[in-house]
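Render this sequence as a predicted structure.
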Amino acid sequence: MKEKMFSDLDPNFKSREIGETVLNFFDGFSAPFVLEGFPYRDDQGRRSRLPLSVAAQCEKEGVYPMSMQGAGEIIRFRTNSPKIGICAEFSEVFNGNNRGGSDGFDLYLGIGEESKFLGNRMLPVGADRIDALYTLHLPADGQLHDYALYFPYHCATSSIAIGILPGCTVEAPTPHRIAKPVVFYGSSITNCGSAGRPGLVYPSIIARRMDFPLINMGLSGSCRGELCIADTIAELDIAALVLEFDHNAPDPDFLAARHEPFFRRYRSRRPDTPVLMMSQCDFYPDGESPIRRRIIQKTWMNAVNAGDMHVEFLDGETLFAGPWREECTQDCCHPNDYGAVLMAERIADRLKRML
């Protein structure tokens, strides 16, 4: 059979230059590249963290566009190319107060705890596409290396081409040590916090260090505990579920009305999946934080007293504990890079035990 070239259908994937470097481009959404973090695709080809039909049912209208934004979205692959190019287009670009590396692609070398950050390439202000090149300072030994490309977490990427030098090889990535994904459901703190770039969102740090596929269902301002989301997560075969379910409840009464029903709905369909629930990281003893913590603890204790051996509680007050507690956020709420690293370390310690 005669080999066919995708570039015959789409000229964007023909050999082309970035700067003065000629590269052969391939569709990053097709094999051998592996897309993670976006388990759903609708009949229009739109990739998403939540099914768009479910997102449309949610109370906050922001859930729908956020479902297509790239928090936790990565492409993994192996190549021996000393230069890697990306050409991406976006259907939506949202600029936040922490715009910068958040509207860019992070490239990492290696897998698991050996992963190393190689650089961020930012989307130009006002642009709806990016053409960028990574020059890798690796031995010219022809060895294949694993790479992970993290997507901008405030942008909806509609297409991406990945380029390698002519004569080089690209293959599927090394399998994860933990094969099943872990789902994180929560607020803006889980969605992105105030991380300076995509690879530093706390669930992404944990996934990289523990080496599992990530599905980030953090929804900024919109974690309301709708039962349709519990049902959606229950349809997935996952290694664990992490609930950062607190901030977007407007008051403790709302949290009490939603938290345990959400957990019970999920648990009724997935009785053995480990669930880690935690209270808010920005703990203030003179505010509502202690009340909210007791509500989440009640959900946990009721499950334990009913014989549930696969649920644990993590006190959010401990996540920033230490002499630099006040330096962990951008705005006394959303974790900055330092806060995200502390959260990742302390949540990962608990997840390792549970898994």
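Summary. Helices lie at 52-55, 63-67, 188-191, 202-210, 227-234, 252-269, 289-305, 337-354. The chain is about 25% helix and 25% strand.
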